[in-house]
Amino acid sequence: KAMRKKIVAGNWKMNMDYNEGLALFSEVINMVKDEATGSQQVVVCSPFIHLHSLAQLGKGYANIAIGAQNAHQNESGAFTGEISAKMIKSVGAVYVILGHSERRQYFGETNELLAKKTDTALANDLKPIFCIGETLQEREANTHFDVIKTQLAEGLFHLDETAFGKVVIAYEPVWAIGTGVTATSAQAQEIHAFIRAEIAAKYSQELADATTILYGGSCNPKNAAELFAQTDIDGGLIGGASLKSRDFTDIVKAFN
Ligand code: PEP
C-alpha cells in the first residue's frame, strides 16, 4: 500500500458558481497545502467553467491537482455543447472522472462508450478516475461481483499495461452515493480486494499492487479514517463533503 499513490478527490458535481468555486478552492489550498505530501494527492474535480482558474490557483502545489467530471469520446468536431479531452488538458487539468453513476444513469453512458472515453482521455494525457459500482438491486440480487467484473472487463481491460497504469479506479456503490448510507469498511474492502484480484488476473500482480483504488459513497470526516485504513482502499472520491472546505480537509487528514 505504501507504494501506491493515495488520493482524496472531490467531485463538486453541478454545484458552485464561478466565484463560489474559486473561494472554496482557495480555502482548500490553504488548508491542505501542508497536509498532502509525499505520495498523497488532493484532486478537485470541478465543473468545466472553473477548470482554468483553479489550475492557475493550484499551480506550484505539487500535491494538488485539478480534474474534470466528464469528457467527450471524440477528439473534436460537430458535437455542439460538448467538451473535449484536449480542451480539458489545455487548461491545466490532470484528471477526468469517467463513468460516474450519475452519467451512467441520467446520460445513458454504457461500458462500451466509457471504453472510448477512456481511450480519448488517455490519448490526450488525462488520467481517468474510472467509476464502477453496483446498484442496490444488484447487491440485493447478489450480482455485485459480476457487475464489477463486467464494468472492468468492458470499460478498461482493452487497455494495454502501460495505459492501464495511468488509470485510477473508484469503487462507488450506487446505493451509497449521496444517500448518507456508507458501505461498511468491510464491504468496501471486500470489493476493493476483488477489483485488485481482477487486475492481477488480467495483467499482473505488480500492476494490481500499483493501482490506486478509491472508495466513494457518503464518505465523511467521521468514517474516512476507518475506510482509508483498509488494506486495499487507497483514498476516496468525495461528493457532498467536498463542498465544505473543513469537511474535505478533515477527510484529507484522515490518512494521517
Ligand atoms: C460521488 O458522487 O462521487 C460521491 C461519492 O458522492 P457523495 O460523497 O455525496 O456520496
UniProtKB/TrEMBL annotation:
The active site is at H100 (electrophile), E172 (proton acceptor). One of its GO terms (cellular component) is cytosol. Substrate binds at N11, W12, K13, G178, S218, G239, G240. One of its GO terms (molecular function) is triose-phosphate isomerase activity. Pfam families: TIM. Homodimer. Belongs to the triosephosphate isomerase family. This is Triosephosphate isomerase. It comes from Mucilaginibacter auburnensis. The lineage of its organism: Bacteria, Pseudomonadati, Bacteroidota, Sphingobacteriia, Sphingobacteriales.
